Amino acid sequence: MKLSKNNIFLIIGYILILVVIGYNSPKEINWTPTYSMEHTVPYGCKVLYNQLGDILGADIEKSKNELYNLEELDGKSNLIYITTSFAPDDNDIDRLMYEVRNGATVFLATEVIGQKLQDSLHMNTGFTNDYFGIPGVDSSQYFAARYIGSNKTYKIKHPGSMPYITPDSVALQDTSLEYTPLCTAMSDRTIMASIKIGEGKFIVQSFPRTFTNYNMLKKPNDEFVAGALSFLPVQHTIWDEYYKPLRNEKADTPLRYILSAPALKWAYYVSIAFLLLYIIFSSKRMQRIIPTMQPPVNQSLEFTRTVGSLYFNSTSDHRDIAMKKMVYFLERIRLHYNMATPYNDDEFQEKLAAKSGVAIEVIADIFAQYNFINKSISSNENQLQELTKAIENFYLIANISYK
Question: Once rounded to an integer, what is the mean pLDDT over residues 264-271?
Fold first, then answer.
């Protein structure tokens, strides 16, 4: 297809607008916590995952399966869960507790823990604004954390209230549970603790943002992360990618993927705008006017009236017209009621009255007028009108169209 100059200029203008928008549009930072090893956003975990093998000195396996469908672990494995909220169902919790009792170590970094798992671990979670402030640092942006027995303080970025963990009354009274605080913040509130169960243990940390790209790239926060993970034994480690906050919100259609990327989204909107402009202006110039087509008019009734008027005016034979009206009347009776139509038959009139529901007097009047006109040598207009009224009265009572 040969392009006109206007279309070429339109395409060039479209490309220039895309380039200008893409060059000048601000690059928004996505602060959504994803905790995924595939994401490079501030609150993704790609940096940690890439260094995890060196930190732990063990092989790392990625899992996208729920706990219930996890392969048998034989007890000697680490399970790492970093997410906003961790509330698996009963079957998953039973599987997790089974693996821990048989020697597995679970590292769980999350702000919210399901109630059943809290009861199983004999612990509670909460939130506070009572920050352990750092001099010269805005307390609404950071909190100070330190390992128990250490004098070094780490500055961790946070967006608001700080989650913490506490043992419940059972854990405080039963020393066999071995509930051990590992790290504190905010006026000595515990943000990391070890809970021994059977042959294995849980290491629970209440601030998962510690392990994200943003804090990993801030010195010396990488030391804090390495210190937290050092409580894991050196053994096969499984990194979870199933219990993530945005697991059900991934782009699963081409359009959703386009709208998720700012550059593609702007290109999509500009393309639609130019397409609409092209349709509006080009269609006005190229479309041919379609004439209005009137539907055919049914003129059969007008034709019949015209022929009737012509016949009547040309002959003025009222008797002949009355005879023809009677023939037409009897033909309608024959077709409508499927019965023979003799002219003078009392039995026929009685049958017609029974079938049509019209009084015998009305039917007899029609035939009486017809007989009178038929025996006359000529007929006048009044006699023709009376016969016509009698026939139309029959049609009306019998509910038969007479046109």
Answer: 78
| Predicted TM-score (pTM) of this structure | 0.57
For residue 239 the two structure tokens come to 């990194």
Helices 221-229/46-56 angle, 10° precision: 50
Q: How far apart are CA 112 and CA 84, in angstroms?
A: 7
Nearest-angstrom CA–CA distance, 277 and 95: 60
CA atoms within 13 A on the CB side of 123: 29
Given a contact cutoff of 8 angstroms between Cβ atoms, the answer to whether 205 and 183 are in contact is yes
- Architecture category of domain 46-245 in CATH: 3-Layer(aba) Sandwich (3.40)
The backbone region for 296, taken as left when phi is positive above 0, alpha when psi lies in -120 to 50, beta otherwise, is: beta
Out of 24-33, 91-100, 360-369, pick the least confident. 24-33
Q: What are the structure tokens assigned to 238, written together?
A: 């499984």
At 4-21, the pLDDT tens digits run 666 666 777 767 776 676
Q: Supply 241's token pair.
A: 């990618």
Between CA 144 and CA 133 the distance in angstroms is 6
Residues with Cβ within 8 Å of 134's Cβ and at least 6 positions away in sequence, in order, are 142, 144, 153, 155
Residues counted in the chain:
403
Q: Give residue for tokens 């007479």.
A: 402
Neighbours of 258 (CB within 10 A): 15
Largest CA distance in the chain: 140
Distances (CA, A) of 378 to 123, 317, 372, 384: 120, 8, 10, 11
- Does residue 181 have a cis bond before it (omega within 30 degrees)? no
Q: What is the model's pLDDT at position 110?
A: 93
Give me the residue spans of the domains in the chain. 5-25+255-284, 46-245, 305-398
